[in-house]
Amino acid sequence: MTKAIIGGYVVPVDGEPIDGGTVLIEDGVIVAVGSDADIDIPEDAELIDASGSWVLPGFIDAHVHLGVHEEGEGWAGNDTNEMTDPNGARFRALDGIDPTEQGFDDALAGGVTSVVVKPGSGNPIGGQTVGLKTWGRTAFDVVFAESVSVKSALGENPKRVYGEQKKTPSTRLGVAAVIREAFTSARNYAAQREHARTEGKPFDVDLTKETLARVLDGELYWDQHVHRADDIVTAIRLADEFGYKLVVNHGTEGHLIADILAERDIPVIIGPLFTTRSKVEVRNRTLRSPGILARAGVKIAITTDHPVIPINFLVYQAALSVKDGLDPDTAIRALTVNPASMLGLDDKVGSLKPGLDADVVLWSGDPLDVMNRAMRVFVRGREVYRFDETKGVGVVAERRYLEA
Asked: What does the alpha-carbon distance between residue 386 and residue 368 come to, in Å, rounded to a whole number?
């Protein structure tokens, strides 16, 4: 099935905007982007008039608990943290995903078409993350990256959780030690596994160590929950020790050491930015932080940490960051190509260019103007959301199976 989104103000993100542009889609993939005059549209293509609209790639929230922390469900719908083992590398967020929870509809209303769902921050090592589309019936439909990274936490959360249980770790010393011991053990395990392979001998697989070995091999990113500047430095020190690909998550005090992060080329998924100063770690939270980090040369993405902040507020965080000094172009990149590239997903999502998934959003105008809204949302080329102007509500495509 071929579709052509025509006549809009196309913002590819990686490339100059095109006034009167076309996005050509075949079988859920973008095949061409350019001016209306330069794109050869097949005669049988479905034409989608985007006149008067801004056409952008779907936004990406790279740190959410969507689907594992179901809103309004209490303990029954909260599968964010398995807080029974400080090293939960074998745990997978994918196994707790409910793609029918209401937050997915909210995501579409906010123009968010892709997310990276992460376990919570109760453990030093929380588990594996997963890349999802925000529309689909089951995990089979929504998963586009089964294992993206491993979530880890430094600071208050793990020391409080296990300190209250009178277990290790109850201090920052203990949290770092758990992570350091886990990687040392995984490195030894990988060497033993390789020796057994060369000797042709059987070897008992350990799912926790296998996962951490993938981090050491560079297959998976290390998503480090961390707020305070001193904890960010600990995260850098651990990454230096073991050589894994570090991505700072939250980074509330990252602006205090922006030069260090920039020098080491460490990206930051910054946010949530609308929260109160609910604990000591976030006492220096500020909407100026994204701009400070970006001007220092740090690659940033912006997150809601949904459901901490509703996911449809993602673009509002970017808009208010612009008000407090973030460059508008960087703000759009922080919602699109930056989160994709910092987690190795830019071969699938993040911009409008041939070969990427056709996740396209038609906005009523500049999305950084809070008065504008997502009018039509396409995921893999399928229209899954439309704002009904006559009723003033968004309509999401049916997710459930209905017999024809």
From this structure: 19
DSSP H or E segment with residue 5:
strand 2-10
Q: Which amino acid is at 284?
A: N
Could you say which of 3.20.20.140, 1.20.58.2140, 3.40.640.10, 2.40.110.10 is the CATH number of the domain covering 59-347?
Answer: 3.20.20.140
Region label for 355, one of left (φ > 0), alpha (ψ between -120 and 50) or beta (otherwise): left
pLDDT in tens, 104-129: 999 999 999 999 999 999 999 999 99
What are the beta bridge partners of residue 226? Answer: 250
User: Tens digit of pLDDT for each residue in 46-71?
Assistant: 999 999 999 999 999 999 999 999 88
Q: Are 380 and 133 in contact (CB under 8 A)?
A: yes
What is residue 386's three-state secondary structure? strand
Q: Determine phi and psi for 56, rounding to 5 degrees.
A: -130, 160
Cα–Cα distance for residue pair 261/258, rounded to 1 Å: 5
Q: What angle do CA 113, 116, 122 make, to 5 degrees?
A: 145
